Amino acid sequence: MLKGIHQQLDPQESPAFFIQGPKPFSRLMFFCALSLVMMAIDARFEYLGQIRQWFSAALHPLEVVASAPNEWGRNIHTYFTSHNQLIQDNFKLKQQALIDHAALQRLATVDAENAHLRTLLAGDAPIIPQATLGEVLHMGRDPFSNIITLNRGSRHGVTPGQAVVDEQGVVGQITRVYPFTSEVTLITDKKLSIPIQIERNQLRAIAFGEGQRNTLDIPYLPTSVDIKVGDKLVTSGIDGVYPAGLAVAVVTQIRQNQDSPFAKIISRPIAGVNNHKHVLILKVPTSPPSSPVTNNKLMLPRNNAQHLDQSVVDILQQNNAAVDPHPVSELPSLDTTTPESSPENQAAAQPAAAPDNAQRPTAAERP
Amino acid sequence: MKPVKFSTFFFTLLAGLVIQLYPWSNTGLILRPDFLLVIAVYWLLQAPYHCNIGWVWFAGLLVDLATGSLLGQHALSFSITAFLGLIYQRRLVLFNAWQLYLYVIFLFAAQRVLILLLKLFAGSELPDWTYGLPIISDLILWQIMIVWFGALSRPKKL
């Protein structure tokens, strides 16, 4: 049936002599117009997203078939991993676990102390992200974009915008989600930018991917900025996408151009952006942490004081119940913040919170 | 030469799609031929009664969906390549083997240049020289197609 229609419609089959010239051309015009319209729609509107979703779901079985040989190969490799190798790995992992345990013990006390100090300053509780483990299915099939595909999709609760990290640092961000898979745009992609902070002096900036070169560029920093080769860049956490303090990159090159007031700062990503198998997908906090405390800092409305102090006491009580190793001895110092002395408390809290905000002006004034 | 069955055409295209979907990485990704392009263009020239510009366009659309690029980019470049192929389709039987290879290389190169232009318009950056390497693997795949399904032959009714 289908074949019959083709034979009827196909100009190539037609015995007429002059018909074969224009017919493919009109066909070409039609399909060119169609593709141009599709490109315009895809670029400007989101209508085609749904079609993409369906298609991806339809292609999924084929994808499974296509990656089957790879899977078998890996399984065979795993099966023949030698006994010796396993013992070595086990030994290494045990050592690592010991080291990590020691660090973790310190972390627990530091965490408790940090929570306590934060409540003293009436700051927000730090956001501890939840994570899902994802496996890298394949690199991007398109040589023009730095994308990897993970085996977790909307069926597993992945949403666009989530941060993706590996054991060393930030890998990228989820940009497109299909039912069973999702696409991660790497931080080296030209389209992705990431808010960072220099670990050494807390200077904030934004790093942009440089595409093919697998590096990050930090534009708009003046030539006199305090940055050195080897400085570690971490996420600043002010965007609500990446939790603060994740390693991003190491500065590898600083070039100063006579003609430009800005330094050309190149850095190399720390995470194995191109060579990892497993990554963590971090859950974005559902709503940005809005707190009455920040409002208070800005406007200092006195009638909010009662509410603020109540929330502080609540947080403190929760924290004490949960972790704080030395709770009661320090409580009295906070008790002075209850209603009668609240204006002073806020005045005291403000300078204490200020250093975080004060970093930026100093950095900007430096030139 | 016997006309090619529609099923042969369809399943080779399907096989091309599956291989395209294989998780290519690193060197494989750089050298990977455009399976769907080569197969579709082969059938376009070999069996025009099955494969027309529309099919080649559809193959391009599949590549767009598989790569996650802007929908229509590969489809557009594939259909223009198909048209370029069709211009000389009737005269191909007069070409000797080397002329044919040159013609096919021209087609594959044209497709890559078209995609490059479209990507540059969309704001991508210029890739390095390895971008041209798949043309060689395209040619190898073309040779495999010829070995399996026969060299391009005179159309049934001229």
Describe this structure in words.
The complex is a heterodimer of chains A (about 375) and B (about 160). Chain A is α+β, with helices and mostly antiparallel strands and about 375 residues long. Chain A has helices at about 1-10, 20-45, 50-80, 85-120, 290-300, 305-320, 330-335, 340-365, and strands at about 130-140, 145-150, 165, 170-175, 180-185, 195-200, 205-210, 215-220, 230-235, 245-255, 265-270, 280. Chain A has three domains: about 45-80, no CATH class; about 95-125 and about 290-365, no CATH class; about 130-285, Rod shape-determining protein MreC, domain 1 (Thrombin, subunit H), CATH 2.40.10. Chain A has eight helices and twelve strands. In chain A, the strands form two sheets. In chain A, strands 1-2-5-4-3-12 form a six-stranded antiparallel beta barrel. Residues about 1-10, about 285-315 and about 320-365 of chain A have low confidence and may be disordered. Chain B is globular. Chain B has about 160 residues and is an all-alpha fold. Chain B has one domain (about 5-150). Chain B is built from seven helices and no strands. Chain B starts with 5 loop residues before the first helix and ends in a 9-residue tail after the last helix. The chains are: A alpha+beta (about 375), B mainly alpha (about 160). Chains A and B meet through helix 1, helix 2, helix 3 and strand 1 of A and helix 1, helix 2, helix 4 and helix 5 of B. Chain A: Keywords: Cell shape. Chain A: One of its GO terms (biological process) is regulation of cell shape.
